[in-house]
């Protein structure tokens, strides 16, 4: 009997991307056919996000669209997995009963069994890479132990659980054998890596070990928590040629008033000292961070302090978000002080400051030579990234039409010829 064709829609962050890649590999091992276009599937799996209100809305809307396809006879079965169903399973069953089955995060066995297959435990580290084949995300841990007042991740994914170095080396070796050249290291809190299984934060050793894998040329670190930044990580960022001089370190705010209310475990002074140390000890490092605006305890003075901090620090990259009130979090009882319009105004003001900083920094790169990796060919233009750019969240280096044929996934030296707020143009040297 022919098995149903399975489609998967992945919503949310890169951690969800990894979960879907593992699930797809298990489906293929069970001889299921994967639909290239989810709308052409018989069974649709929706891997949801439930982190903030906007993500929840997107997940709900995606589920409801699938329900309409099912009602129209274009879909036989709907399976919902991921963060939203982990957090709100009982409510979802009542509100959207048309979904056939709900599963939580990383419940690969439940999904596979539901479809009539068997989980291949020994091959759970293998994945079907959905990103361009030359880079992949490496999730080194699951869950989070930090008590941030605004965050529902510990509620959804539980406490911090590190994977062993051996398991991660095996997974990274598998990715390298598939042609991956850049590992993007992720987790809810990467700087907590190892504390639960090795009795110490062991991120530096992990990065050094990963750099030994043949074929891996770049290792990029995301989601580093600032309050317990490991001392030995400075030397790895500065001295290991395969570890990108790049770090994503979500700060969320700089005002002591807000940091204390957010339960971030760090002060404004310590935050500034950490940034100074990174700049001094890792010359040329690219600093990316994220901030939350419109937090209920954020006064006008707090917000002005944040704006001044961004002007002074001159971050290379910034992501900013409006505060989203989340049930069962510590800040929930504070209410939602600001209207969405007020929060959006603060967001626009902060990003306008960063736009000017990014424009000036990009302009200084004109004439410089950079090593880049080619991500894709689109409408005749090649789109590349340097060591300064993480995939999906940072800008592109555009190599325009008319360039001699070059290969995606390969490294080239380029000269920067032009700039805008976030993107650059370049020519092959």
Layout: helices, strands, pairs:
Elements: E1 5-10, H1 14-29, E2 33-34, E3 43-48, H2 53-71, E4 77-82, H3 83-95, E5 101-102, H4 108-114, E6 135-139, E7 141-142, H5 153-157, E8 161-162, H6 165-177, E9 182-186, H7 195-198, H8 203-210, E10 218-221, H9 233-239, E11 243-248, H10 256-262, H11 268-281, E12 286-293, H12 300-313, E13 317-322, H13 340-364, E14 369-378, E15 381-386, E16 397-399, E17 411-419, E18 424-428
Parallel strand pairs: 1-2, 1-3, 3-4, 4-5, 6-9, 9-10, 10-11, 11-12, 12-13, 16-18
Antiparallel strand pairs: 7-8, 14-15, 14-17, 15-16, 17-18
Helix pairs in contact: 12-13
Helix/sheet category: alpha/beta
What is the topology, as strand order, of the major beta sheet? 6-9-10-11-12-13
| Residue share in helix | 25-40%
Radius of gyration: 22 Å
- Report the count of strand segments: 18
**Approximate shape:** globular
The amount of beta strand, in percent, is: 15-25%
Task: For the record, give the distance between the C-alpha atoms at the N and C termini, rounded to a whole number.
Answer: 56 Å
Main sheet characteristics: 6 strands, parallel
Mean pLDDT: 93
What is the number of helices?
A: 13
Low-confidence stretches: none
Folded structure, characterized:
The chain is of the alpha/beta class. The chain has 13 helices and 18 strands. Helix 12 links the parallel strand 12 and strand 13. Helix 12 (300-313) runs parallel beside helix 13. The chain is globular. The mean pLDDT is 93.
What's a concise summary of this model?
The protein contains 13 helices and 18 strands. The chain is α/β, with parallel strands linked by helices and 429 residues long.
């Amino acid at each position: 009997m022919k098995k149903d064709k399975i489609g998967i829609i992945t919503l949310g962050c890169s951690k969800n991307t990894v979960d879907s890649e593992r699930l797809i590999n298990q489906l293929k091992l069970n001889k299921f056919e994967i639909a290239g276009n989810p709308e052409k599937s018989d069974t649709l799996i929706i891997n949801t996000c439930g982190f903030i209100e906007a993500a929840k809305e997107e997940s709900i809307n995606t589920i409801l669209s699938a329900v309409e396809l099912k009602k129209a006879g274009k879909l036989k079965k709907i399976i919902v997995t991921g963060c939203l169903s982990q957090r709100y399973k009982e409510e979802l069953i009542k509100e959207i009963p048309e979904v056939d089955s709900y599963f939580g995060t990383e419940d690969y066995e439940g999904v596979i069994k539901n479809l009539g297959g068997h989980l291949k435990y020994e091959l759970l580290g293998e994945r079907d890479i959905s990103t361009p084949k030359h880079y992949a995300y490496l999730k080194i841990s699951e869950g989070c132990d930090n008590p941030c007042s605004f965050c529902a991740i510990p509620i959804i994914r539980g406490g911090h659980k590190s994977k062993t170095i051996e398991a991660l080396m095996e997974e990274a070796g598998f990715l390298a054998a598939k042609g991956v050249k850049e590992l993007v290291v992720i987790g809810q809190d990467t700087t907590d890596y190892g504390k639960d299984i090795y009795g110490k934060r062991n991120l530096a050793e992990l990065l050094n070990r990963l750099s030994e894998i043949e074929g891996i040329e770049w290792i990029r670190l995301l989601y580093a928590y600032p309050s317990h930044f490991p001392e030995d990580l400075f030397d790895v960022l500065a001295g290991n040629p395969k570890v990108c001089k790049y770090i994503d370190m979500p700060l969320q705010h700089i005002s002591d008033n807000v940091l204390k209310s957010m339960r971030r475990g760090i002060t404004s002074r310590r935050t500034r000292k950490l940034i100074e140390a990174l700049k001094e000890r890792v010359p040329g490092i690219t600093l990316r961070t994220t901030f939350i605006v419109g937090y209920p305890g954020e006064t006008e003075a707090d917000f002005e302090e944040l704006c001044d901090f961004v002007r002074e620090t001159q971050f290379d990259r910034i992501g900013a978000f409006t505060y989203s009130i989340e049930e069962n979090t510590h800040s929930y009882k504070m209410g939602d002080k600001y209207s969405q319009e007020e929060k959006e105004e603060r967001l626009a003001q902060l990003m306008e400051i960063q736009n000017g900083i990014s424009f000036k920094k990009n302009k200084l790169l004109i004439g410089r030579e950079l090593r880049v990796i080619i991500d894709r060919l689109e409408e005749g233009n090649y789109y590349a990234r340097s060591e300064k750019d993480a995939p999906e969240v940072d800008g592109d280096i555009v190599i325009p039409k008319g360039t001699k044929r070059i290969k995606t996934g390969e490294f080239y030296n380029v000269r920067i010829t032009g700039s805008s707020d976030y993107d650059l143009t370049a020519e092959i040297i």
